[in-house]
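Interim report, section 4.2 (structural modelling).
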Amino acid sequence: MPHEHEDPRTVRSRALILDAAAAVFLERGFVDATVDQVAETAGVAKRTIYNIYGDKDELFRATILRSIATADRFSASLAVEVAAIAEARDLAQALSQIAVRLAESVLIGPVLPLRRLLASESRRFPELAAEYRDHAPEAVMRALARLFGDLAERGLLRAASPRLTAEHFAFLIMGADLDRGMFDPAPPTRRRVRASARAGAEAFQRAYALGTCPEPDPTAPESGRPRTGSRAHPG
Amino acid sequence: MPHEHEDPRTVRSRALILDAAAAVFLERGFVDATVDQVAETAGVAKRTIYNIYGDKDELFRATILRSIATADRFSASLAVEVAAIAEARDLAQALSQIAVRLAESVLIGPVLPLRRLLASESRRFPELAAEYRDHAPEAVMRALARLFGDLAERGLLRAASPRLTAEHFAFLIMGADLDRGMFDPAPPTRRRVRASARAGAEAFQRAYALGTCPEPDPTAPESGRPRTGSRAHPG
DNA sequence: GCAGTAATGCACTCGAGAGTGCAGGAGAGC
DNA sequence: GCTCTCCTGCACTCTCGAGTGCATTACTGC
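Predicted structure of the assembly:
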């Protein structure tokens, strides 16, 4: 939604500046990034940035809000995919697929750097951190919660709290990498992400499946499965 | 291990400065904290800080390394508790207890602010972020992995990868709060932490229990438990 | 083409905070 | 008590980056 009649020069500058600002801020952080760097990267005069955005804070806000909006659109499309798997014939496989899809989209690409930046600046721009949380991650959680609530109603899954179930799903499939990503700028390998996602999805299904009794693990040594989990102390 | 013969005045100053620096850095972050603030908080001349630590970077390193060492000692003691529950009579309850203990110790108290600070400064001080990860969280993970490996060998738990199992446990019981804590400076309530930890521990046990068949959830509506998870499409 | 508006370049101010120099005071060790 | 070392206070320098003023240039809409 462009303003009334905007000078195309301004439109062009705005685009150049926001792209450059995203790159610079994501790489250096708010404090270490300088407006001169953004100007140079954008191929634009510093004065132009100040003409359009007023000051560095506003430039940052505009940049981040744009990134969040992108992540938001993306979450929305993922929510659709999530909803779709409620109809899947093979639920186990569908869950595994959505797990991989979700993990890859969060852990590979620009989301992790954005998260680092927002966390770093959550003191200075708490409203941006909140904005991010209310959109990207929450949107996904809501979609997952809706899915699990639906599946539970139809007797395909345990009927625990859908919200909690969604959290368990999300953190089982990518919790470790998500956490590591806050400290380590090197992104995880796609291979690792997929493996973790699939393993997490399996654990999730063991925890939340209904009516299936987990078969004893064939790799477990000796010990003819104790009847209950308690009273295992070898007296 | 104090150096050879240290002037007691220096020892005293050092202690005052590190305490003050921890407080100031944790509250403001590295860049927004000023050496003058640290000096004033410590009740010490700015010049003394420079005499002892040379520059702001070194002051920060010393401060953080001390915090990490504290967290480290703490992790070690927690590792002992973790190991102890391998002998527990009621495994389910022991796991739930250790879950609450672990979650509280990480989410309530100084760990979350430290994590935020380290994440914020991971670009400037990658070695500190790495140091932290190699000590505090990894120590706990190793302890958990040892525990689960042990339990698996004794046939009390699924024999999946102990390391992966440990991650699943940790992120089931506190993943959501851990993540939120990176963006939101308000600590979670103890009540919430305990509830999440217990719920996570339950899910974990459903996923990793051996030999127990999950009873159908009494709150689940209708639907006489489908025989398998797949082929659930009402068609 | 012409008028108006935006972008440019560049020199500039300003404030803040890191780090220093130094002279004098005070406690530690003997 | 004497000496030596550390701490103190304070004024100082330096650097760096945010933000401004302004005259000039270039593009846009008509």
